[in-house]
Amino acid sequence: MKKLTLLVAAAIVLTISGCSAPPLSGTAPVALVSARPSVSAPASATPATPGTSTNSATPTAAAPTPSAAAPADGGAVSNTTPDPQRVQPVQPTQPAQPSPAPDPNGVDPAGYASHAIDPGNGGVALPGLEFMTADGNVICGIKPTTDGAPGFATCTPSTWRTVIPQNGNGMPEHAVILFTSNAAGWLFPDLYSQPARTIPVLPEGKSIRLESITCSVSGGAVTCVNAPGGADFVVSTAAVTYHN
User: Fold this and answer.
1) For the chain, does the N or the C end have fewer beta carbons within 10 angstroms?
2) pLDDT tens digits, residue range 111-123?
3) Are 188 and 169 in contact (CB under 8 A)?
4) Above 60 in pLDDT, residue 174?
């Protein structure tokens, strides 16, 4: 026992002095403990996904961020910018005015275009429609509203000298006139009878309309009515009357 203790002490002295002692026979070599602490690898902040290598050099692409949260009811998410017209409050609109009911006895105005002139205004053309009775004794015209002036209908009977009251001022009344403004009266000079030309006939029982005035032929007399005002006139070779 004393011999073994002396051998161990001698080995320790040799180690401290920088010399290595030969291994003792029958004894295991003694491992020297290093004074340098061991450094462990840092733990990954992200736990590894099972089945996926954490040492891959290729980065994994991040999932796209949705542009809008899914609705609570599970419906599809819309990324469309709202249309400003669809979010504006609806403005009330005026109800459309009903069109007048078609006259079953009405004729096509296209065949009655005016070719008359205004003798009191330098002979300028009179727009609108023209027609006469089948016997040619009543000649009429309907002028549309132009340049802010109301439209009108006018008729001249062949017997105007005897059936239309005269004012005695040297300006004989030739015709009767009805305005779309719902006024009626006598007219000088007559319109739509000049120049001499062929004027289309409005047949018995038929009517023609322009703007708010409708004229019809019955019993050889012409009646023109402004609607909805109600003013009218009736012209025949026997009499001429009007009502405001």
Assistant:
1) N
2) 999 999 988 888 8
3) no
4) yes
Range of the domain at 213: 109-243
Residue among 244, 105, 139 nearest 184 (CA): 244
Query: CA gyration radius for the chain?
Result: 57
Burial readout 34-52 (b: 16 or more C-beta within 10 A, e: otherwise): eeeeeeeeeeeeeeeeeee
Residue that is written with structure tokens 């322009």 in the block: 210
Any domain includes 124: yes
For residues 203 and 61, give the distance between their C-alpha atoms in angstroms, rounded to a whole number: 89
Q: What is the pLDDT of residue 80?
A: 52
85 lies in a domain?
no
Q: How far is Cα 124 from Cα 116, in angstroms, rounded to an integer?
A: 9
Buried b / exposed e over 55-93, threshold 16 CB at 10 Å, is: eeeeeeeeeeeeeeeeeeeeeeeeeeeeeeeeeeeeeee
Flag whether 80 is in a domain.
no
Residue 15 has pLDDT above 60, yes or no: no
Is the pTM of the predicted complex or chain greater than 0.90? no
pLDDT of residue 213: 97
Q: Is residue 228 part of a domain?
A: yes
Rounded to the nearest integer, the mean pLDDT of the chain is 73
Domain count, the chain: 1
Structure tokens at 155: 């008729």
Q: Do you know the residue count of the chain?
A: 244
Q: What is the mean pLDDT of residues 201-221?
A: 97
